[in-house]
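Justification of resources, computational component.

The compute hours requested in this renewal are based largely on the per-chain cost of generating structure records like the one below. Each record pairs the submitted sequence with a full structure-token output. That output is archived, and it is also reused by downstream analysis tasks.
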Amino acid sequence: MGARVIKIPVGDATGDGALSMAKNPSRLADAEIKAIVDRAHFHDMYVVAHALNDIDVLRAAVAGVDALAHTPTERLSARTIQEWSGRAVISTLSAFPDLIETVENVRRLRDGGATVLYGTDMGYTTFPGINPKEIELLGRAGLDGSAIVAAGTAVPAEYWGFGDGLGTLTPGHAASFLILDADPSLDPMTLSRPHEGYLDGVRME
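The structure output for this chain reads:
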């Protein structure tokens, strides 16, 4: 049907990996996760995982999962950080604004070689646009203005395979852009208050 990404639960919404594994026999086993990942990769599809604690994030890495759908809420071990090098994490920090470990996990994952992709978990968060809380928390995690802009434009466009049409203001690319009142690499908060937006050259109302 044209799907390009498979999302799987590695753990549950609580993030309590060890407890949940004991109480929920319907949880995906490691072999099942690996089978899903291998089959998806055979079809050139990405696999992202909902995994919020160290145990489950490590399980996802060992199985070959490509990206985390959320920044984990539990502090990650050094081994897990290492295993996640070369993979990606979607930030969604504004979905957990009061949890210090989420911000620190972004910092440590990025320092360890993971790619950070801007994300807000829209549906759980409801800000109608680029979320200023997400930008603030990415800044706390060590991303400067240029890195924040890249995490929401060129980096995800390239990561998800849209680099030939999205992510940069380049001749031949899609004319989808925002008009801002400041340089977002110097003031990334300006991203959350655009004057105008264009999608494929058409002004959005």
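Helices lie at 17-23, 30-42, 54-63, 78-83, 100-111, 132-140, 145-152, 154-159. The longest helix spans residues 30-42.
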